[in-house]
Specification:
By secondary structure, this protein is an alpha/beta fold. The protein has 2 domains: 166 residues, 3-Layer(aba) Sandwich (Rossmann fold); 192 residues, Dehydroquinate synthase-like, alpha domain (Up-down Bundle). It contains 20 helices and 10 strands. The strands form 3 sheets. The protein has a 6-stranded parallel β-sheet. β4, α3 and β5 form a beta-alpha-beta unit. The radius of gyration is 21 Å and the shape is globular.
Length: 420
């Protein structure tokens, strides 16, 4: 698929004209050479990176901007959290800047995207790892007020990636990119489920394009393990295309569902409790096994004839236990959305057969585990790091971090959020 042709937009059978206001995507050797033409009328640049990503590609980006005025914000090598402190660090250097160049992947990308949107200063991202699908999406995953929130933000003027740089990224980041794509099995299924239950907007063309990228990525696993340049470039292309599909949909629905909610749970509670957590894409991959098992459970028996709702006191107690200082943010979000006040039982019973048919379209937990194992995943490490109790808490309460209806809500409504 020609990404730059895709960027021109699509008149879709869903009735929408899909657009994505990114000007250029270059996934090729020496991709940085395009910076001078992309920003031909800009002279004052701010480069944002961390020590590792700057070491990976900083010098070649600076060389490509030879003759320009350059300032830099280089974060340390410790885990960077895209929070208010990081935002302020970048904002302090924006005076006189006419373009921002991010060098990195997930967090650097989201940070630059957020700052660019708020300041009105255009940015480009020079990717250093094929680790996630947010390069071309219009959402920035931030930690604000202690909550993991996806903020609507702008898009980069350009996405640049050199396969020779990408292949040198840590193996876990490549593994994470693969896992993030495999997670679309879960996200796409949740999108269909919400269309069925809530009549949410759904685009079959976007669904099909995204699923096509999942199928193509599955064939890359052995090449990714060997850090084959062609496989790495193909993974990066899939990640960018999925991001474009999110922009086309106007929502992250094609790429983010219950598996991402579980991943966000492990990240947020890890930050709150000062406990380790996997890179985002790896958490997404393992969480896809968990959500597949939930779907199998939901299909296996007739739906109960009642839905579960905890008392207000029980709910607030559990939120405080699980989310500690971020509990109030979760409670306020759910009060605003009103999911706990909705009784969808009549819809569940009326559409039980259709719901189960959609749930059955998702590969089984064993099948997902097998798909991931080819790329070096072992579910045992997931349980070793988090433990059964924490994973069960995630299955029950990760849904409260977001406003999106997924199989986690269906499982909560019908089975009290109990694990598969």
């Amino acid at each position: 698929m020609d990404i730059n042709e895709l960027l021109k937009g699509v008149d879709c059978t869903c009735g929408k004209h899909h657009t994505c206001p990114i000007d250029y995507v270059y996934i090729e050797k020496n991709a940085e050479k395009h910076l001078s033409e992309i920003f031909y009328d800009n002279n004052d640049f701010l480069i944002v990176a961390d020590e590792n990503t700057y070491s990976a590609a900083g010098e070649q980006v600076v060389t490509a901007l030879s003759g320009k005025n350059i300032k830099k914000v280089i974060f340390g090598s410790e885990i960077l959290v895209p929070d208010e402190k990081a935002i302020e660090t970048v904002n302090q250097e924006l005076s006189g800047i006419t373009a921002i160049i991010g060098i990195g992947s997930g967090v650097i990308q989201d940070l630059c995207k957020y700052v660019s949107f708020k300041s009105g200063i255009p940015y480009a991202i020079f990717a250093t790892a094929p680790s996630m699908d947010g390069y071309a999406s219009n959402g920035a995953a931030m930690i604000l007020g202690g909550m993991k929130v996806t903020v609507s933000a702008g898009l980069p003027r350009a996405i640049l990636a050199d396969p020779l740089v990408l292949k040198e990224s840590p193996a876990d980041m490549i593994k994470a990119g693969y896992g993030d794509i495999i997670g679309k099995f879960s996200a796409l299924n949740d999108w269909k489920i919400s269309k069925c239950i809530n009549d949410e907007y759904f685009c079959k063309w976007i669904y099909d394009v995204t699923m096509d990228q999942v199928q193509k990525t599955m064939s890359l696993a052995s090449g990714l393990l060997e850090k084959d340049e062609t496989a790495i470039a193909a993974l990066m292309e899939a990640l960018v295309i999925v991001g474009i599909m999110m922009s086309f949909a106007g929502t992250s629905r094609p790429a983010s569902g219950s598996e991402h909610h579980l991943s966000h749970f492990f990240e947020i509670t890890g930050i709150l409790d000062n406990k380790p957590y996997f890179p985002h894409g790896i958490d997404v991959a393992y969480s896809t096994i968990i959500t597949a098992a939930i779907r199998e459970k939901l299909v296996a028996a007739p739906f109960p004839k009642e839905i579960y709702r905890p008392t207000t006191e029980e709910y607030k107690k559990e939120m405080a236990r699980v989310y500690t200082s971020s509990a109030e943010g979760c409670i306020e979000l759910q009060e605003k959305i009103g999911n706990y006040k909705k009784d969808r039982l009549s819809v569940f019973l009326e559409k039980e057969e259709e719901i189960k048919r959609i749930l059955s379209e998702m590969p089984s937990a064993k099948e997902i585990e097998s798909i991931l194992s080819v790329a070096g995943y072992d579910i045992k490490e997931f349980y070793t790091l988090y433990g059964t109790d924490k994973i069960n808490d995630a299955v029950k309460w990760a849904k409260d971090l977001k406003d999106r209806y997924t199989c986690l809500w269906l499982n909560f409504d019908l089975y009290r959020g109990e694990p598969a």
